[in-house]
Amino acid sequence: MNTSEIINKLKDRVPSILGYEQLRKSAVLIPLVEIENETHILFEVRSMNLRSQPGDICFPGGRIDRDDPDPKYSAIRETTEELGLTESTIKDVLPLDYVTMDRGRIIYPFVGRITDLAQMKPNPAEVSEVFMVPLTYFLQTDPERYKVNLQVVPDANFPFDLIVGGENYNWHTHHIEELFYKYESKVIWGLTAKILTHFIELLHEK
Fold first, then answer.
1. What does the pLDDT look like over 169-194, one tens digit per residue?
2. Which portions of this protein are annotated as coiled-coil regions (predicted)?
3. Among 6, 43, 44, 159, which one has the highest count of C-beta atoms within 10 angstroms of its own C-beta?
């Protein structure tokens, strides 16, 4: 294959994320609710019966199914399933920046309005509690920030003889930053806090 053939083969290709097909893909929704003319954000407390992160605070959302046409559809579908709402009560759904994680995940966050809470009936298999926090609290409150240091531990059969430095190779360790919001008795942290902080930063932008 000569260089011209290579260029012709690749020139119309649209770049994506390397290994995209292998990534676990999820979508979440930041639900905005008007209560007495004040905007609130709705949160869920995950059921203690769930295998993954029981009892944690999160936004409605979940895995993108193969049959879902796009991440926005997934975020709305998961919200209706978890909160017992109809799709017609979820309005003005807009995308935020998507999140890629080291553990092979990509999360598509959205924000949207819930126009009628009267029919809400959370699914107890997934949601143990729902609560609201005024948006003004997050606009006026910076999250607490803590570092988690990550350590590199090669497998026992790692081929040190193939790399310069061998067992004395200078691995570059790094850390992740965890954010925490404390509102009354609730603690919002992890991915939910990171997405929330991104949303608040967008609102603060001029």
1. 988 888 889 999 999 999 999 999 99
2. none
3. 44
- Tell whether the model's pLDDT for residue 42 goes beyond 90: yes
- Burial of residue 183 (CB within 10 Å: 0-12, 13-18, 19+) is middle
Q: How does pLDDT run across 123-143, given as a tens digit for each residue?
A: 999 999 999 999 999 999 999
Asked if 195 and 109 count as a contact pair (C-beta separation under 8 A), the reply is yes
Strand partners, 30: 111
Yes or no: say if 196 and 181 are a contact pair by the CB < 8 Å rule.
Answer: yes
Residue type, 151: Q
CB 2 within 8 A of CB 39: no
**Six token digits for residue 52:** 């993954």
Angle at 132 between CA 131 and CA 138, to 5 degrees: 130
Domain ranges within the chain, ordered by starting residue: 20-142+182-205
Provide the terminal-to-terminal Cα distance of the chain, rounded to the nearest Å. Answer: 51
Q: Is the dihedral of CA 39, 141, 48, 106 positive or negative?
A: positive
Residue showing tokens 């893909």: 25
pTM above 0.70, yes or no: yes
Q: Which CATH code is given to the segment(s) 20-142+182-205? A: 3.90.79.10
Count other Cβ atoms within 10 Å, centred on residue 180.
13
Per residue in 71-88, pLDDT (tens digit) is 999 999 999 999 999 999
